[in-house]
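Bug #77: duplicate submission created two jobs. Keeping one. Sequence:
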Amino acid sequence: MTIAIPKHKTPVQADITKTMVLIYGPPKVGKSTFAASAKRPLFIPTEPGLNHLNVFKITEKTHIETYQELHQAYVALHKAKQAGTLNFAPIVIDTVGRMVDLCEEEAKRKTGAENLGDVPHGGGWSVRNTLIKDLLFRFSGLGQGLMLLCHSKLLEEDTPRGKRISHVPALSGSVALAVMGHVDVVGFAYPDADGSPKLYTKPHKSYQAGDRTGRLPDAMDLDYEAFKKAYETGAKSK
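Kept job's structure:
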């Protein structure tokens, strides 16, 4: 790596496929279909559910079943990147929640603990979180963009005005913070009043969402082409 005092500002990233995105929502809302509509995505499936889609995926099995297989997937992609033959974008992890589970299983193997909470001083959770962050940095470091798909859950919180229920990614607190902090866009996929799937990208009291790029509208159809067009239009106006 060469360290140098910069002379120019970095250019705006106008390629949506090179952006880090988290899409979460209830089952069957269309998250995988949304990702599959990108020009040339590569799926890393960590649970079954792609049989109805015609997609490229990293394994011939229905899904990846261990942390070791996740690491093998990264190694294969890294070798292809170095050889100049990695022509997929974005990389899609479907789902990130199951990826977290596989990292937890690996952490138990490494620590020898049946329950990570039994490891003193939070050491078990630290091992798990390190494995999760390492995978996220490795896959995003390929430079092909990264799309994380995730289920949603309902979170009940006490507020000064009473209880509030909101939709959030189905991840534990510390993991959710790490994952959402890693991406540029957190999109909530959910049907509107007419049953049409929508993608929400701005914070709301009823759900978690966010758009670090500032290029996307508050809501749009859950359609990859609409997402791409909105992102690229916003990039041109920057």
